[in-house]
Amino acid sequence: MRRQLRGFAVTAVALTSVLSMAACAKDTGSTGGGSTSAAGEGCKFAEKPPAAAATSSTSASTTEKVDGSALKVGLAYDIGGRGDASFNDAAAAGLDKAKADLGLKDVKELTAAPNEAEDAKVTRLRQMASEGFNVIVTVGFAYAESLKTVAPEFPNVKFSIVDGSVEGASNVTPLVFAEEQGSFLAGVIAAYQSAKCHVGFVGGVETPLIGKFEAGYLQGAKAAAPEIKVEKKYLTPAGDFTGFQDPAKGQVAAQGQIDAGADVLYHAAGASGKGVFSAAKAANVKAIGVDSDQYNQTTVAESKDVIVSSMIKRVDVAVYDFIKASAKNDLASLPKVFDLKSDGVGYSTSGGKIDADLQAVLEGYKAQIIEGKITVSDQPTS
Hints:
- The chain is an alpha/beta fold.
- The protein is built from 11 helices and 11 strands.
- The strands form 2 sheets. It has a 6-stranded mixed β-sheet with strand order 7-6-8-9-10-11, sandwiched between helices.
- Helix 4 packs across helix 5 and helix 6 packs antiparallel against helix 11.
């Protein structure tokens, strides 16, 4: 009997030790997102980056009064236009801010159709310029060819192109971004939010531009958790732009990645991202938005509880700054690239899923990128 009691006591002590060790392991793995901080236990994390130094900034440029009432501003959207909850809505937000701040009175908005002929874009831009619109923003690299034709015909019109450039056209201002840098941080977020150390990426159209999102996301996820597994899927090949406006196809692709084991999905798919969110919502996994703070987008409000963050691509800032610089006749003041250093890309914290510990990790990586200690590739590996 005494031997049995002694064995029982040894077993109890051992069990207590195991439980204590488990509790300690859980505590040490708590750096993650909000109420899901323990979920990151699925990954073995790399050493955290050093804490970022505190920075300060001035807002003098944002409070400067500029009168844009004499401008006639045209905005040529990519497919999807206003209401895509992503890329185009970000541009629309910049236009709306310019209306409010700069006193714009004459504005025209037109939208591209999926897989439209190049002549349709030329006609759209020529129509705006012929009607006297002297500042025209084109949203998306697909307008590059049409600008080669139209911009020389209207040398006094200030054109800009988001995500592209036109060689030799002095009246076309490129508004380009370091999407790979913002996507790197999205990859870090995905790693820390994943319970399985298995995440996914859904791209709209397989182009070099969307490849930048994929490249940064994969690099960030691997930097945070070297053994993480990443699924990827493009909805359409290069040249077929319906991949940016097909939520059903986005939902199927996302479901395939969820079935494969991914529990955090990042999309760079325009309006097709609505389908990614729907799949994540149905499967009770997590998602990361893109371009706009998609947690606050009304068109995807039914899925907001699964959106842990968004990679913010400040198209709104670029559009607003271009219009403002046009009103001041000072286009040279615009940054060459809207990157982390210029706050042209970043991440959102809406919804409370990014807690203070994870934010400190993100700011540490951000500082290393800005300082040049981490170089983020804009080319997918394989």
